[in-house]
Q: What sequence folds into this?
């Protein structure tokens, strides 16, 4: 049960709210765990202290429905679910390659889903500590209002996909230095913090696909796993084709590295209007890392 103001239009929600993961997805994956949810690189602990789970936690979010003037739930359905559902089934259930408009529909569905799943107001049926400030994707509410009006995702959201086989061999340590995503002090004195959420879903062949969504306001991010081919950037600019069966597979060690290649905070960077980070020595170091041959190909 998620009550409160609709996260998209602000109206008072009278229904029980949107399920961040739609019911059809739950039915498809009932009992097919383990599933993993990571917030800012850390496994989201269950109340019993465990992290892997056989059941995806039910997550609801205050989103208005068909009895409300804006019907944001209906908008989510027509904008993301209708086009995305067949692609999600093709990719995640049948490991089929997709291309073109199908990739775009798949990617938009994933971004929407992780965005809702990790929203600060999300209510979890199972996980104890999520929903606490600092452990969720902190996209400003105003950005979701704009998204409702325009259909466009907020800026500075990046989604990567990786495939992991927890039982597979280690791929070593492709990340030499963790990337610090600093706290940005904007010209207007406000503060912008990055945040991320990673959702892992099991594939029919026993592997796991990880979707890592990073909100990095006013920061240009280089993900060394993307540079070295271990992760695929899905958003922005979705690839022309996506073949999950042919994607490189990370072992358990690689998975751990993937979910901890960056950390948030630790430094405060003041920037002027129109500027972005990185713009100094740290940024040059990042670009050197990106161009270096230190990662497996
Ligand atoms: Zn609404």
A:
């Amino acid at each position: 049960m998620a009550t409160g103001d609709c996260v998209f239009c602000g109206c008072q929600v009278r229904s029980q709210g949107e399920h961040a993961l739609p019911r059809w997805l739950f039915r498809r994956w009932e009992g097919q765990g383990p599933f993993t949810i990571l917030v800012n690189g850390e496994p989201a602990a269950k109340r019993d202290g465990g992290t892997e789970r056989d059941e995806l936690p039910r997550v609801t979010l205050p989103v208005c429905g068909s009895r409300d003037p804006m019907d944001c739930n209906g908008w989510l359905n027509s904008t993301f679910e209708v086009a995305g559902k067949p692609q999600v089934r093709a990719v995640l259930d049948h490991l089929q390659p997709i291309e073109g408009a199908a990739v775009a529909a798949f990617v938009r569905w994933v971004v929407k889903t992780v965005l809702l799943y990790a929203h600060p107001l999300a209510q979890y049926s199972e996980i104890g500590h999520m929903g606490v400030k600092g452990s969720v994707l902190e996209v400003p509410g105003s950005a979701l209002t704009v998204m409702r009006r325009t259909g466009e995702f907020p800026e500075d959201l990046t989604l990567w996909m990786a495939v992991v086989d927890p039982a597979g061999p280690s791929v070593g340590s492709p990340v030499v230095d963790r990337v610090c995503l600093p706290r940005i002090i904007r010209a207007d004195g406000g503060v912008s913090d990055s945040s991320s959420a990673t959702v892992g879903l099991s594939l029919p062949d026993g592997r796991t696909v990880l979707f890592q969504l990073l909100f990095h306001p006013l920061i240009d991010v280089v993900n060394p796993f993307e540079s070295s081919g271990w992760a695929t950037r899905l958003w922005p600019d979705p690839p022309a084709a996506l073949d999950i069966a042919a994607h490189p597979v990370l072992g358990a060690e690689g998975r751990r590295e993937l979910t901890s290649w960056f950390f948030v905070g630790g430094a405060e960077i003041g920037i002027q209007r129109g500027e972005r980070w990185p713009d100094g020595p740290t940024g040059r170091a990042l670009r050197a890392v990106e161009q270096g041959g230190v990662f497996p190909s």
Summary: The longest strand covers residues 262-270.
